[in-house]
Design goal:
Blueprint lengths: L1 H4 L1 H25 L5 E2 L2 E2 H35 L2 H5 L5 H5 L8 H19 L5 H28 L6 H11 L12 H10 L2 H12 L5 H28 L6
Antiparallel strand pairs: 1-2
Helix pairs in contact: 2-3, 3-6, 3-7, 3-10, 7-8, 7-10, 7-11
Length: 246
């Protein structure tokens, strides 16, 4: 309701979202220009990865980024005390500080791109494949949230943790590319350190029916690991926090 009160800004943000969607498409279009496949990925299959990337961005823009950015600001200006006084879990409280409905446009655009990629393949996925894709995509969202929460926890002791949070958001742009394009050290980093592969490539593979049991176990194990580490990091950071008046 607050976003729609300013109608001109609301409509302008819609057009800005469409503009950035075009910017996102351009590099992939250029890469696949006059090429049938790149690193074993065809143009329709690459569109699936790009679609899940936009869905990821949309989910982040609706929930993760607004809430945790607000939490960072409150840590820096000392107003986090009012949030921590609520009779609910502190992590849940800071994770639900704000929502931005305009991010739904990115989410819808991602779904449209996935649908177009499936149309080009001329093959409808099974319901089990769709379910698997959504499940592994959800694991990717949880991983992104967990990493973002660790940056927020770092703000209790590091003044410039907000800059690291922005840097992480920039690194996420690489998730638009299929995993096969990353080799050597980059493949290891984007699989285990910042699991971009799980966030977009694995959902696309699941939709195509090509996600194996080993990859499923890897995705689940990494998700559990990031959730546990982020929770421990958050709890330890709160123990060191003495409040704005301390």
């Amino acid at each position: 309701m607050l976003a729609m009160q300013y109608r001109v800004e609301f409509i302008a943000n819609m057009f800005v979202g469409l503009f950035w969607l075009g910017i996102t498409l351009v590099p992939v279009v250029v890469l696949f220009d006059n090429r049938r496949t790149v690193a074993g990925w065809s143009w329709p299959d690459a569109l699936l990865v790009l679609g899940f990337y936009n869905m990821l961005r949309g989910t982040l823009n609706v929930w993760v980024t607004p809430s945790l950015s607000r939490a960072l600001a409150r840590i820096q200006d000392g107003s986090l005390d009012f949030v921590l006084l609520r009779p609910i879990d502190a992590q849940f409280s800071v994770s639900t500080l704000a929502f931005l409905p305009l991010g739904v446009f990115d989410l819808a655009a991602g779904m449209a791109i996935v649908g177009y990629g499936l149309h080009l393949r001329n093959a409808a996925p099974s319901w089990s494949a769709v379910t698997s894709a959504l499940l592994v995509f959800s694991l990717g969202v949880v991983i992104v949230y967990s990493i973002s929460l660790m940056f927020v926890a770092a703000a209790f002791t590091a003044v410039r943790s907000g800059s690291l949070f922005q840097l992480f958001n920039s690194v996420l742009d690489l998730a638009r590319w299929p995993a096969a394009l990353f080799r050597g050290v980059l493949a290891l980093v984007f699989t285990f350190v910042v699991p971009l592969i799980i966030m977009t490539t694995y959902p696309a593979l699941a939709l195509l029916g090509g996600l194996g049991r080993e990859q499923w176990l890897q995705a689940i194990a990494l998700t559990v690991a990031f959730v546990v580490i982020s929770r421990i990091t958050w709890v330890m950071a709160l123990r060191r926090y003495t409040s704005a008046g301390g």
